[in-house]
Amino acid sequence: MTKSILLASAALLTLAACSSSVSDAGCTYTPLLGTVGSCDDVVDDGTTAGTDNGTGATAKLLSTGYSASRIEYDTANDQLIVESLPFDDDVFEGRYDRVASSDVPGYKAYSPTNGNLDNYIAYYGTSSTGNVSSAIVAQGGYADHGHAGAGYARSGSVNLPSTTQRAFYNGSYVGLRTVADPTVAGGIGPIDIIKGDVQMEADFSDNKLRGFIVNRLLTQDESKVGLSSSVTLIEGNIDRTEAIVSDGTINGTINGEDLGGTWQALFGGPDGGEVAGVVVITHGEYRETGSIIAEQ
Fold first, then answer.
1. d(CA 245, CA 67)
2. Distance CA 79, CA 110 (A)
3. Cα–Cα distance between 222 and 209 in angstroms, integer?
4. Which one of 71, 75, 121, 180 has the largest count of C-beta atoms within 10 Å of its C-beta?
5. Looking at per-residue confidence, does 146 or 270 come out higher?
6. Taking a C-beta distance cutoff of 8 angstroms, is the pair 280, 261 a contact?
7. What is residue 188's predicted lDDT score, i.e. its pLDDT?
8. Does the pLDDT of residue 163 top 60, yes or no?
9. Using one digit for the tens of pLDDT, what is the confidence trace for 90-122?
10. What's the half-sphere exposure (Cβ side, CA atoms, 13 Å) at 220?
11. What pTM was computed for the model?
């Protein structure tokens, strides 16, 4: 069975990068913060799109600055399937195999076995229930950060709390850091793989979600990422109708240099007890594309 990125379904979901509203299979979705969103009923369950009030299975892909138009997880072969990244395979879809030696807590690592002149690496993670999931892929040594992709999703419906004001989430983070100009790093630079922990807090009365990425370490040598290893996820806005979070920004420093960037996420689980999302951190020539998975 092939599970659509990040969606717990055998149905095939393809999301194309765009910058305006798009119609697909009779549904209409609108990009969010550079992402492409799906219709409510991504999986054809015989209902009309939108009848689940916007909180059913859904998936989102980054588009601005990112090339991947499709990411899926193949459960039968334990592979990631990625489309629209050049030279990652010899067929239209690139199949990424497990690289267990590069795993980090909460995430499994994958890399293409064909097209090995390009050092692509990908990470895929899910919550303990599998209700939410996220994936990132990138390559190093190319101008403008090379080719990359990132997405996150949920399966099933979610109803956000209406009586509980606050909720706390803890989980794991993985990031792939690339450089815009490889000559800055003295030639073809590798991808920095960064792992960390996620702490998040939701305020459902004011519809806000915020958090921190802490204990950030370079996996190559287990060293801290700069003098400060934490990143602040400045509060994003919760859309209760769609159970998604948008407009989140980044705050922090690395060796005295201010960080910028954005983050976005969605809730999963029957009562919103799980969060998945993606983070884009920028500083100088560097861009870090990261994944967050957290649970109550």
1. 23
2. 7
3. 29
4. 71
5. 270
6. yes
7. 46
8. yes
9. 556 678 889 999 999 999 999 887 655 457 889
10. 8
11. 0.78
CATH code, domain carrying 233: 2.40.160.90
User: Could you count the other beta carbons within 10 Å of the beta carbon of residue 224?
Assistant: 13
Q: Which of 120, 124, 62, 121 is closest to 262 using CA atoms?
A: 62
The pLDDT tens digits for 200-250 are 999 999 999 999 999 988 887 666 665 456 899 999 999 999 999 999 999
What is the distance between the alpha carbons of residues 234 and 216, in angstroms, rounded to a whole number?
17
Handedness of CA 248, 271, 14, 137 (dihedral sign): positive
Distance CA 264, CA 34 (A): 10
Q: Which residue has the higher pLDDT, 296 or 84?
A: 296
Core vs surface per residue 33-48: b (16+ CB within 10 A) or e: bbbbbbbbbbbeeeee
Of 120, 121, 115, 119, whose CA–CA distance to 87 is shortest?
Answer: 115
Which long-range contacts does 246-251 make (Cβ < 8 Å, 24+ apart)?
A: 246/32, 246/33, 247/33, 248/209, 248/210, 250/279, 250/280, 250/281, 250/282
Which residue type occupies 110?
Y
- Tell me which residue range forms the domain holding 181: 2-295
Split into its structural domains, the chain has a count of: 1
Q: Exposure pattern of 177-186 as b/e (b: 16+ CB <10 Å)?
A: bbbeebeebe
Q: Which residue has the higher pLDDT, 250 or 67?
A: 250
- The dihedrals phi and psi of 152, each to the nearest 5 degrees, come to -150, 155
